[in-house]
Amino acid sequence: MVSYCQAHLRPHLENPKFQNHRLVEPLRDIERRTCEAHRRPLELYCNADACCLCQDCAKDEHHGHSTLPVTDARRDIEKELREKQKEMLKTVTAAENAINKLQTNTVTIENSVTEVRAVIVQQFSELQVAVERAQREVMEILEGEEKQAVSQAEGIRAHLEQKCSELKKTQAQVEKLSKNKHDIDFLQEYSEWRKDSVDVSLPGVYIGLMDRLTAFSQVVTESTHELCAVLLSAYRDKLKETCRNDKLGIKTTVHAIIAAQNHSSVPDPKTREDFLKYATPLSFDADTVHKFLRLTEENRKATNTTPWQHGYPDVPERFEHWRQVLAAESFYLGRHYFEADVSGEGTHVGLTYRSIDRKSQESNGCIAGSGFSWCLQWNGRGFSAWHGDVETPLKVEKFTRVGVYVDFAKGELAFYGVGDSVALIHRYQAEFLEPLYPAFWLSKKENVVVLVNPGDSLPLKSPSPPPTPPAEPWPPPQQQ
């Protein structure tokens, strides 16, 4: 292939000897279409090395490789691209359908929650009516006790008043009798008086109402405490168990468009180079980072600076108790891989749902305690895997770089130690219901996590500092 100016092109247009020469439009980038080694046109395509080559290349370094003329190769590749476009169109269509379905479901969820909220209000209104009714009945019992006590006291008082009147009358008779100076008359009057005299003894009076009222109050207080305990546990425990077992049943079916045979035809990664094919560059989400963690290096490095706090704005997404941070990127469908350099005992690396509680002091707000989180911890002596508050101690060597691999469709999550090669540390099998977010818990002062760009070289030496005293105990203390 040669380029000509207008003057040198004229013979090819006018001389019959050059009529069999094929002329084409001038090329702007002829150097790109010429072999740098042999200065010959790039006419062939090597399927093995996915590159264009000249005839001499096909005979030399690409000898024995499967080659095609560039036109045939383009035709085959365009056919393959058309198939991929069809697959991508199916994927986009399925994703749009899923989005529409989720939007519809959102309205349905809001309506359903409104209905359930009305039921809850009604039930608690009935409960309030029952409490008010119980209060009225208890007050009626108390008023009955009051009336009975008052009536009893009135009866005793009337009896005592009558007795007192009789005693005063007897006292007057005795006084009159003692004034009689004649002995015979005195004795005769005394005998008559004695026959009609009344009992001068008085009944003992004991008012036991206060004892009964104290017992009454104690019964009401104890019953109230028992009912409150039963009431709270009945709602809280049963609802928690229901939510834990049901998982709300929200799923998408976008992954259904990935044919099982196509997925199974792709071999599982074995080497670091294999894993890096699925690598995703990550950065920390500044809206989620705890105030004791400092972000640097374009939000790719997190450091625990306890007790120094940072002036991050208060937003709902920020972790308030656990010193954690999420990545800004998420993993959903397909295969994904990332690497992180970890420093210091008490550093945790894992994955979680975005719905993890950000404000709770309970274990469900920590990636080691949540039932929807999976993480790996370096404790200064070895690694442990954590999921749902359950620790699995692992007997593996120390690594300062951890690789995390996810196959969403298979429900597979694996942690690898990254060195000259990759070594499996632990693998989880689960059913993922939501997109997964890389999550990190830096539980102690000077813990450091650095998100590694795909393919970055390993650190020259271990970044782990000397052991430090615990800053956050795990498991967390029981709440009183």
UniProtKB/TrEMBL annotation:
Comp. bias intervals (Pro residues): 462-480
CDD domains with a match to the protein in the record: Bbox2_TRIM16-like (cd19769), SPRY_PRY_TRIM16 (cd12890)
GO cellular component: cytoplasm
Keyword set, alphabetical order: Coiled coil, Metal-binding, Zinc, Zinc-finger
Pfam families assigned to the protein according to its UniProt record, in alphabetical order: PRY (PF13765), SPRY (PF00622), TRIM_CC (PF25600), zf-B_box (PF00643)
Domain of life of the native organism: Eukaryota
Domain B30.2/SPRY: 262-459
Domain B box-type stretches: 30-70
Gene Ontology terms, MF aspect: zinc ion binding
Coiled coil location: 78-105, 150-180
Residues covered by region (Disordered): 459-480
InterPro entries named in the record: B30.2/SPRY, B30.2/SPRY_sf, Butyrophylin_SPRY, ConA-like_dom_sf, E3_ubiq-ligase_TRIM/RNF, PRY, SPRY_dom, TRIM8/14/16/25/29/45/65_CC
PANTHER family, alphabetized: B-BOX DOMAIN CONTAINING, TRIPARTITE MOTIF-CONTAINING PROTEIN 16-RELATED
Name of the protein in question: Tripartite motif-containing protein 16
